[in-house]
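User: What would this chain look like folded?
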Amino acid sequence: MIELEHLVVRPAHRAYDTPILLIHGAWHGAWCWEPAMADLAARGFVCHAVSLRGHGGSPRPPGFARSTVVQYAGDVRAAIAAAGPRPLVVAHSLGGYLLQLIMTGAVGPAPELAGAVLLCSSPPSLRS
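Assistant: Here's the prediction, encoded as structure tokens.
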């Protein structure tokens, strides 16, 4: 397992027990969530954002160009575990696709989540 960039913004006064985890889309990193993290923390949430392997401040492992969806899903699964019990996960684009694979059990047991928000993500299957 590689060490991923993991940003955390804590509120001055925590109002909610549920942490929020933000997952970026393709060609982005945790940095894209910084304005949202500040806003959510001001409202009382502990906010986490992770950069998937080879994105943002996360390292590019050997063979990065051949990274698989299963490897990226492992990154998201690790971020869910690091965020704390039952996070609310907000995921964009590629992050939303990966989150759906995780929630449906397509890439291992589905973790307990408080909820999921999918922003402009592809469906996990294109079958009707």
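The domain at 6-119 is CATH 3.40.50.1820 (Rossmann fold). If you want, I can go into more detail on any region.
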